[in-house]
Amino acid sequence: MGELIGRQPMLSDAVWRDVQHLGTTRQFPERSRMLKQGEPGTHLLALTEGLAKVVSRDAEGLTTWLAFRGPGDLLGEVSVFNGTVRTADVVALTPCTTVVLEAARFRRFVEQRGLVLPLMQQALERMRESDLHRTELLTLPLAVRLARSLLRLAALACPAEPVRVRLTGLTQAELAQAIGVTRNAVRNCLQDLRDADVVETARRVIVIKDLRALRSWAGL
Fold first, then answer.
1. Rounded to whole angstroms, how far apart are CA atoms 56 and 62?
2. CB-based contact 47:90 (threshold 8 Å)
3. What is the 3-state secondary structure (H, E, C) of 118-168?
4. What residues contact residue 77 under an 8 Å CB cut-off, 6+ apart?
5. Which letter, b or e, does each residue of 49-84 get, where b requires 16 or more Cβ atoms within 10 Å of its Cβ?
6. What pTM, to 2 d.p., does this model score?
């Protein structure tokens, strides 16, 4: 079937294993805030289990969705390297397991292992994904945008691409925010996917039953 929708972690398996030995393990309950916008970048998190979302808040309190993150992702690394406050919140969508990495120690590790370029490539890839997402919001039909978002989540949750993928912890309101539509619009589109036997849904649960069909809905 090929890739779900191009997710390419920049750190090798060996480096990722070493990263996990740099800090201490911390669990985050579902819906808890893992990193807080406006706080200094004293540490970052290596996400080993679970799904999270990245959102920013403006001065009026308006929340903007930025990204979903999954196992193998670093969280909060930009403020650590730039020495600035955090520009977004990271919120656990499901129970999450992380490794807490102290800023100075992680910077030394990056320099010693020659990881500056891979991490720069990761930052550029994330910028490219953000640009692509903004273009999709302006140009693609709702059903295509929803299908692509579900595929991205599936790639985060289950990169091995199994037959069925169970996504938990995500509300229809959060999906709507991610693709720039109303919750009612998402509800109607999910009904279309249910009618086509592509997904099953329950409260905060979406089961992708047919990844091949979902890719077709996504235009991929």
1. 8
2. no
3. HHHHHHHHHHHHHHHHHHHHHHCCHHHHHHHHHHHHHHHHCCCCCCCEEEE
4. 44, 106, 119
5. ebbbbbbeeeeeeeeebbbbbbbbbbbbbbbbbeee
6. 0.88
Interval 198-211 mean pLDDT: 93
What are 144-178's pLDDT values in tens digits? 999 999 999 998 887 666 678 899 888 999 999 99
Surface-to-core class of residue 28, CB atoms within 10 Å of its CB (0-12 exposed, 13-18 middle, 19+ buried): buried
Angle (CA) 132-156-55 rounded to 5° is 60
Distance from C-alpha of 30 to C-alpha of 91, rounded to nearest angstrom:
8
For residues 202 and 220, give the distance between their C-alpha atoms in angstroms, rounded to a whole number.
Answer: 26
